Amino acid sequence: MKSYLTKIDLFSIVIGSIIGWGAFMLPGTKFLQESGIINTALGLSLGAICIMIIEYNYRVMMEEHDEEGGEFSYTYNILGKNHGFIVGWFLLLAYFTMIPLNATAFPLVIEKVFGDILKFGYIYNVAGVDVYLGEVLVSNVIVILFAYFNIKGIKNSSKIQNKIIFTLIILVAVIFITMFIKSDRNIIIDNYISNYKFNLKQVLTTFAITPFAFVGFDAIPQLSKEYKFSAKKASLVAIISLSIGTLIYNALNIITAMAYSPYKAKTLEWALGSAVSENLGRLGFVLLVIALIAAISSGINGFMICSSKLIGSIADYKILPRKFGELNNKGVLKNAIIFISVVSLIAPWFGRTVIIWIVDMASLGASIAYMYVSYIAMRKARNFKSKIMSLLGTSISLLFILLLLIPMSPASLGKESLIALGIWILLGFIFLKFGNLNEK
């Protein structure tokens, strides 16, 4: 008998996809210096509310469409092959790139604890970053490990995900409370609260990264065949996950602010890690590193699950080779997982800078999928609430896309990312035009 995912399983997969490496690095590299703590909280909260509006349209989709592939198969069935392919192609980019991003973060964590232990076997320099065999091997071992867990079955990988996520949440809560008790509260009051002024630009600067910060909430429609409860309950899981994800982002930002001014945080390699180490000692730092490892691991696992489901669905529609849609005796898309893993094993050889250029496009890929789902919901809307929510969802998605593409935007894609985007679009066009694609 098939084992189905519980609400807790689904919650863990979604949170794992939302919280990754970025949540632990952004306080020092972006949030504090650009928006402080209050304007950052406003920007993240506004972003989460916008994503929840989009999620309402996802619920509309899930109520009438329970095929795996989510946005891809939904768009394919309603708007046709070309539009379906656009959604699937860009969504695949959004999911795919997060796996090597998190895998290559593992060596960085090890280096923060043990120094340059992995900097052996120098290979070459790519985009100003030295690539070492030691770092590549660690990244590859992590990918292989999670591929193995997923091939063993989604229920098996979801149990691992549950343990990882609850470890993450508990540790972040413990560190936050302990920092609040032990740190000098005058630091956060003097630097971020007593002289606070609302600044719309600062709020929007944080809001602009919303598609990146919350990509992964849409994991639920990819897993529609893996759970038995209603779309309404699945939607509630997504809302709770988004709310807790927002709290975790803000908690990590405030932890850093308890120790440093924005100027000091900017000068540190890992401001959050230094803040915890200075105030809570070695034990606190170890707990933070465990939480970071949990976040990275859950991201790899969550996006590997979502990517395999999406690839399997695209294969079922004969756009990818049918082998990718074949299930093994555990009901797992083994060939899809192997393909994802092979691509993820290659990525670390290009260096982390190149991976980040590509990952920057993930927000665009996700935003395009959001726009299509909201647009279809708008076409199907039968009552006032649905019309308003779908119109808002479409407008918000379009805003996300413009924020990424307009040159003067605080979230605009860099030149390298735009070149990579052009290559991805060209590959998609070639694949669609000359790939001998057949209608379902």
From TrEMBL:
Bilayer topology: Multi-pass membrane protein
Signal peptide: none
The UniProt record lists the keyword Nucleus: no
Keywords per UniProt: Cell membrane, Membrane, Transmembrane, Transmembrane helix
Compartments (UniProt record): Cell membrane
A GO cellular-component term linked to this record: plasma membrane
Organism of derivation: Paraclostridium bifermentans ATCC 638 = DSM 14991
Protein name, entry field: Amino acid permease family protein
Major location (coarse): membrane
Keyword Transmembrane helix listed: yes
Record field: transmembrane: 7-24, 36-54, 86-110, 122-151, 163-183, 203-224, 236-263, 283-311, 332-350, 356-376, 388-406, 418-435
InterPro entries per the UniProt record, alphabetical: AA/rel_permease1 (IPR002293), APC_superfamily (IPR050367)
GO molecular function, one term: transmembrane transporter activity
